[in-house]
Design goal:
The complex is a heterodimer of chains A (about 400) and B (about 475).
Chain A: E1 9-16, H1 27-42, E2 51-55, H2 68-74, E3 81-84, H3 90-104, E4 109-117, H4 135-140, H5 146-160, H6 165-184, H7 197-202, E5 205-207, E6 210-211, E7 220-229, E8 241-250, H8 254-257, H9 267-280, H10 285-288, E9 291-294, H11 299-308, H12 317-322, H13 339-343, H14 347-362, E10 376-385, E11 388-397
Parallel strand pairs in A: 2-3, 2-4, 9-10
Antiparallel strand pairs in A: 1-7, 1-8, 4-7, 5-6, 8-11, 10-11
Chain B: E1 3-10, E2 14-17, H1 18-25, E3 39-42, H2 49-60, E4 71-75, H3 86-93, E5 101-105, H4 111-125, E6 130-137, H5 146-150, E7 154-161, E8 167-176, E9 182-183, E10 192-193, H6 196-218, E11 228-230, H7 236-246, H8 268-279, E12 285-289, E13 294-302, H9 314-320, E14 323-324, H10 328-334, H11 343-347, H12 354-359, H13 362-365, E15 368-372, E16 378-379, E17 397-401, E18 407-415, E19 425-432, E20 437-441, E21 455-466, E22 471-480
Parallel strand pairs in B: 2-14, 4-5, 4-6, 11-12
Antiparallel strand pairs in B: 1-7, 1-8, 2-3, 6-7, 8-13, 9-10, 12-13, 15-16, 15-17, 18-19, 18-21, 19-20, 21-22
Helix pairs in contact in B: 2-3, 6-7
Classes of the chains: A alpha/beta (about 400), B alpha+beta (about 475).
Chain lengths: ~400, ~475
């Protein structure tokens, strides 16, 4: 296995807009807001940036293709700027590219920025998937949606572990209720209301067995990270956050096309998790990881992730959920920010927003939702759906 | 000896009590009370003439190779395409060879028997060894009309040849008249009719009689020689009048399916023939009559080979599987009779790339995937690199058919966000017997009937309609085994 970039790169500045239905803000507004927060946070000048990566997913948000919109919005001084796109994991892809640029020496300081204006597309929920998967898939695939494809992970998981719909939905309701609680403590979150498990259980079905509260918010927002070589980081701030691992795993197609996958787990999370633990030198994640932000686009995704990241044993996530292991006061808090569920999910901003929460927590700046003295944080960003996806995992820490 | 070598039929799962229609529209046309009895078969939103013809053809080919040998004729008065042959869509769905003869027969209610006669002539002449004739109709009666009640949807398929003949074709007699009872222009959706009493007395009453009498005289037969007489009159009173004129006794008259299916247009004579063959014994003589711009009379004699023909759903089997269609508004939507607020997800139909459909060859039309010669793993669609993680060899693929394989449900959902004409949109992953996985739509089922592990088969359906660009996309869906 390659040596990786552990402790080669540090995050020295981050920014994130409030997420939500930002009817009166343009993509340019959000890009500038996230960027200015990160720039101020890092205490650098725009001309110090040597390269930038821009993440967006659905084109309908009016920023179009290519990286030109980022460069022209920020008036970046003719530096290399590249657009990256990898479904809902696009944001983490931008960060990974910026980290590699710095680690390689190609750049001293690099920028990653993700932005999405979903509420300019006219859809409740994500825009249609038809074109995301290419022409030939449109003529053969069902008219799939994200909730429909993730709901199948729930039916498959419930069937495998013999959970009734009631038992399964109750475990999922605990996850969503927990995320709403965390979101209520976060001023930048899209949804800031507490929701009881009972309300969640009774909500209208979006895609059986997932109800309204099993689905994340559909939001506008932008997030931004500025990175430099770890050895230079203290020049910019006393509390930089160090990158311990940046891994991505893309499906080979086995899950979607071959009968050896039973639909009750996400293979790429397992693979990317193992690779990230190895890169970061983590041998016992249940003991070593202090907190994590995962891609809870749907409650079931969060449940599967507990097991796929080897924190809960296979088939035992429900037991850990019930005992509050992942709650804000639990052993390993999951989604202290409120997660996609409550913080919201402007696609290409999400991966960077996850790192933003880990960054604030490691620096002790998370206010009411501050976790006691965290050492290592993990982010897991999913693009696609359980049967066909890619997973981007980052591990960040406060110490070198 | 030439004749029928196999038969099959299709009747949609949905049946609507005609009172459902009368309750909504009887206020306008009280005279329809006379036809507001029994139930009619209603095609699902994803069914049409072509998909029903495919289903009947598959039923007909039970126990045989799916492909038709030398050709396929499709008869219908509700062909989806005026240009783009409809019969070839049926033939391709069966994954038939391309060096065959295909054709659409339309224009009159008797197009079903006209196609049958054309096929029999080709068999008798020796130019074809085996031909399939499908007759299928999904006609829409204008709201408020008697036809709205009487029309039903259904299809029949007959395989014709000289080997293993189960009903020998003994002869025919045809008459053709420009009797303008019903008419419809290319650009029109609904038909126009002249007065009922004239159609009954001068049309059905005299023209069918003339064909029947002509056949009896030509072959020196009497009506008493026939075990069954097929008179495709949708109205019971009309049928009794024709039967009386011909001299057929009650026990000879084949049921016209009105109480349970409805008037299936060009398919009616052939569906009644299939129903007759399901009950027939060797030596039985069957007189098949049709009607429309004249009449064809055909005479068959059942052979001892009928005992060897394996069981299939046919008319009887399909009649035993039914689901109540209770909502008139839903019927209007399924038949595209009222505009519906489909929302942004229903509005957006990206254009279909015809080049891609052509590149896909039979993957889309016949659900043909590939199987790896190196490891034997079936896979879909046409992968170049084997998807089996233990193999992953390149360039070892051979065609492999999924449409004739059973499967089981791996995962499923009922999606209320996805656009569907009949929400929730039920879809999921299917693993096929022998290998291979597909994510497919489910149809002809309700969400609460679907379970992980349950067996399914696949059915050819209309996947989407792009009316703006004049295109229907067809594909296969999973149906729980009934």
């Amino acid at each position: 296995m390659p040596k990786g970039i552990k402790d080669e790169v540090a995050i020295i500045g981050m920014g994130c807009t409030k997420f939500g239905e930002l009817w009166n803000k343009t993509a340019e507004d959000l890009i500038v807001e996230a960027f200015m927060e990160a720039l101020t946070d890092a205490g650098i000048d725009k001309k110090d940036i040597n390269a930038a990566w821009f993440a967006t997913e659905f084109d309908a948000e009016n920023v179009g293709k290519s990286a030109v919109r980022l460069a022209t919005t920020l008036k970046l001084p003719y530096i290399p700027v590249t657009r990256v796109e990898n479904f809902c994991a696009s944001g983490t892809e931008a960060v990974r590219a910026a980290c590699y640029a710095v680690a390689s020496g190609a750049a001293d300081i690099a920028l990653a920025l993700g932005c999405e204006k979903l509420k300019d597309t006219g859809y409740g929920g994500l825009p249609d998937f038809g074109q995301l998967l290419g022409t030939d898939n449109r003529i053969i695939l069902p008219n799939i949606t994200a909730p429909g494809m993730f709901a199948q992970a729930a039916t498959a998981y419930f069937a495998k572990y013999g959970l009734s719909a009631e038992e399964g939905k109750r475990a999922l309701a605990h996850i969503s209720s927990k995320s709403h609680h965390n979101g209520s403590l976060n001023p930048k979150a899209h949804l800031r209301n507490e929701v009881s498990e009972e309300t969640i259980m009774k909500a209208p079905i979006i895609a059986w067995p997932l109800g309204l509260y099993d689905c994340c918010g559909v939001s506008d927002g932008a997030a931004c990270a500025i990175v430099c070589r770890a050895s230079e980081a203290k020049k910019y701030r006393k509390d930089p956050v160090y990158v311990k691992a940046a891994q991505i795993s893309v499906t080979s197609g086995r899950e979607f096309f071959h009968t050896s996958w039973d639909g009750s787990y996400v293979e790429t999370t397992v693979r990317a998790g193992m690779a990230a633990y190895k890169e970061a030198g983590v041998t016992n994640p249940r003991e070593e990881i202090s907190m994590f932000e995962v891609h809870d686009c749907f409650s079931i995704t969060e449940l599967l992730t507990y097991e796929d990241l080897q924190i809960s044993p296979r088939g035992k996530a429900v037991a850990d959920i019930e005992r509050g292991f992942y709650d804000l006061g639990g052993k390993i808090p999951c989604n202290p920010s409120g997660g996609l569920k409550s913080f919201g999910h402007p696609i290409a901003a999400t991966g960077i927003r996850m790192i933003y929460e880990m960054y604030l927590q490691l620096q002790g700046r998370a206010d009411k939702r501050q976790i006691n003295d965290p050492k290592l944080g993990l982010t897991m960003n999913l693009g696609g759906f359980p049967a066909m996806n890619l997973i981007s995992i980052s591990i960040v820490g406060k110490d070198l | 000896m030439a004749g029928v070598t196999s038969f099959g039929a299709y009747i949609p799962w949905y049946r609507m009590n005609r009172k459902v229609i009368f309750d909504q529209m009887g206020w306008f046309n009280g005279a329809t009370a006379g036809v507001a009895r029994g139930e009619k078969a209603v095609a699902n939103y994803d069914e049409d003439t072509i998909s029903m013809a495919v289903a009947a053809a598959i039923d007909c080919l039970t126990g045989k190779s799916r492909a038709v040998a030398d050709g396929l004729y499709l008869a219908s008065l509700s062909l989806p395409f005026v240009q783009r042959q409809n019969a070839i869509i049926v033939s391709d769905a069966l994954n038939s060879r391309s060096d065959i003869r295909t054709g659409d027969y339309t224009g009159s209610l008797k197009a079903g028997t006209t196609a049958l006669l054309a096929a029999l002539d080709a068999i008798l002449s020796g130019s074809s060894k085996s031909l399939m004739v499908c007759a299928s109709d999904c006609r829409v009666g204008k709201p408020g009309s008697a036809q709205e009640h009487t029309f039903g949807d259904g299809a029949a398929a007959l395989l014709l040849g000289k080997e293993d003949v189960i009903a020998e074709f003994k002869g025919s007699y045809s008459v053709s008249y420009d009797f303008i009872d019903y008419r419809r222009l290319t650009e029109e959706r609904f038909l126009h009719a002249w007065e009922d009493r004239w159609i009954r007395e001068e049309g059905y009453g005299k023209i069918i009689f003339e064909a029947a009498r002509g056949l009896l005289k030509k072959y020196n037969l009497s009506i008493g020689d026939f075990s069954k007489v097929i008179i495709p009159c949708p109205m019971a009173v009309w049928l009794r009048g024709v039967a009386k004129a011909i001299g057929a006794k009650d026990e000879q008259i084949q049921d016209n399916l009105q109480a349970v299916v409805g008037d299936t247009g060009t398919a009616l004579s052939l569906m009644m023939l299939v129903a007759a063959l399901e009950e027939a014994k060797p030596g039985d003589k069957i007189l098949v009559l049709s009607y429309g711009s004249g009449s064809d009379a055909l005479y068959f004699e059942v052979t001892s080979a009928i005992a060897k023909l394996g069981s299939r759903k046919g008319i009887r089997g399909h009649l035993s599987q039914r689901n109540d269609f209770k909502t008139y508004g839903k019927y209007l939507v399924f038949r595209d009779l009222i505009p519906l607020e489909v929302g942004i997800r229903g509005e957006q139909i990206p254009p279909t790339a015809m080049t891609v459909l052509w590149q896909q060859e039979r993957s889309v039309s016949a659900l043909v995937g590939v199987r790896c010669r190196a490891c034997g793993t079936p896979q879909y669609p046409k992968h170049k690199v084997c998807v089996n993680p233990e193999c992953e060899k390149t360039g070892q693929m051979e065609p492999y058919s999924f449409s004739d394989k059973a499967g089981r449900v791996v995962s499923f959902t009922g999606d209320n966000l996805a656009f569907s004409w009949d929400p929730p949109s039920v879809y999921g992953a299917i693993d096929f017997q022998g290998g291979g996985r597909l994510f497919m739509d489910f149809t002809d089922c309700t969400l609460d009937a679907v379970k992980v592990g349950m067996p399914v088969e696949v059915s050819f359906r209309r996947k989407y309609a792009d009316r703006q660009r004049g295109h229907y996309g067809y594909y296969w869906k999973a149906v729980p085994k009934k």
